[in-house]
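Final report, Chapter 2: Outcomes

The project's central promise was a pipeline that accepts a single protein chain and returns its three-dimensional structure in a standardized token representation, suitable for archiving and comparison. That pipeline is now operational. To close this chapter, we reproduce one record exactly as it appears in the project archive, with the input sequence first and the structure output second.
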Amino acid sequence: MDTEREITAAYVGIGNELLSGSIQDANFHYLAEALRELGIRLMRAIVIPDEQEVIRETLDLFRGRFDHIFTSGGLGPTHDDVTVEGVALALRVPVVRHPFLEKKIREFYGDKLEEASLRMAEIPEGAELHLLDEMSFPVLSVENIYLFPGVPELFRQKFEGIKEHFRTRPYYTEEVISQRRESEIADLLSETLERFPPIQIGSYPQWGEKGYRVKIVVESKERASVESAAAHLRKVLG
């Protein structure tokens, strides 16, 4: 049996606007689907305010527990864009101005440059720049923390640009549909988990045009185990 350790991740959405409900966090849903396709298990997701100390506390809690941490939001020129400062606090390093980023910002704005825009050239000392192309602003990472903008279009564009860096063995899934109540099949699901230990099972009741049914999802990185467990469930559930 292949006992390769799963690669894990955490998501940190940063922004008062997310907590107030002013903006929906589309980046979380996108990232959850993207990571699953890459073979990475998203284990935690949290939304926090634009406060340096809260960012520090959250990263202190997450960065030693998960392989990758993805932040969203707080990368800009305004007073509430404090993600870089919060990350630097967590890593106990200073914030420094990166000459390459400063050059790109000055070239982009030209004569219209305002001093506040140069805040976007500031990084935690020792951070790495992941260049996507000559035109795009690079993705910033430090240790296992990857910083992304909060604007959904930019978040997706930048993640798509570096996602192959994270790819690992994929998950395999199969669905089994039952019209029996969850309480009736609970023991059968537990028995299946014990019989095929590499798998995970989720059961999701649904009500719709076809009436009541339970969608059972079997998942693992072991394709043979998924196929065997799904075949077993179809047999015992009739």
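Archive annotation: Helices lie at 16-20, 26-38, 52-62, 83-91, 99-109, 152-162, 182-195, 223-237.
This record, like all others produced under the grant, will remain available to the consortium after the project formally closes.
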